[in-house]
Design brief:
It comes from Xenorhabdus bovienii (strain SS-2004). Pfam families: PemK_toxin. GO terms for molecular function: DNA binding. This is Plasmid stable inheritance protein. The protein is α+β, with helices and mostly antiparallel strands. The protein has one domain: SH3 type barrels (Roll). The chain has three helices and five strands. The strands form two sheets. Strands 2-4-3 form a three-stranded antiparallel beta sheet, with helices on one face. A two-stranded antiparallel sheet has the order 1-5. The longest helix has 15 residues, at 73-87. The chain is globular, with a radius of gyration of 13 Å.
C-alpha cells in the first residue's frame, strides 16, 4: 500500500509503502496492522492486513508496480495513524 503523496512519488521516483499480506499473525495481536476486507477496497478483491510497522521506500518503476486497488480514505487514515504512532508515539 502506497502511503506517500502522489506528487512526491512522481518527483522523487520513489514511494513510501507498507506491505500487505495474508499472514502477520503476531503483528495482528500487537495492534500494528490494519485489516483490509472486501468493503475497505474499491475492487473488493483484497482481504488481508497492512503491516504498518514495515515501512519501505520503493522505486515503483523498478519494481514494475501496477495498480491493484484503492483503499477507502478511512483505511488509509488508520494506516497513517499507526505509522505515525510507531515513529513518534507522542504525536498521537
Amino acid at each position: 500500500m502506497v502511503i506517500s503523496e502522489f506528487a512526491l512519488n512522481q518527483k522523487l521516483d520513489t514511494a513510501l509503502c507498507v506491505p500487505i499480506t495474508s499472514g502477520g499473525g503476531l503483528a495482528r495481536s500487537e495492534a500494528i496492522t490494519v485489516y483490509l476486507d472486501g468493503s475497505s477496497i474499491d475492487t473488493g478483491k483484497i482481504t488481508s492486513v497492512a503491516l504498518c510497522y514495515q515501512i519501505r521506500s520503493l522505486d515503483l518503476n523498478e519494481r514494475k508496480a501496477s495498480y491493484s486497488a484503492q483503499a477507502e480514505p478511512n483505511v488509509v487514515d488508520e494506516v497513517l495513524a499507526k505509522v505515525i504512532d510507531i515513529l513518534d508515539p507522542q504525536l498521537n
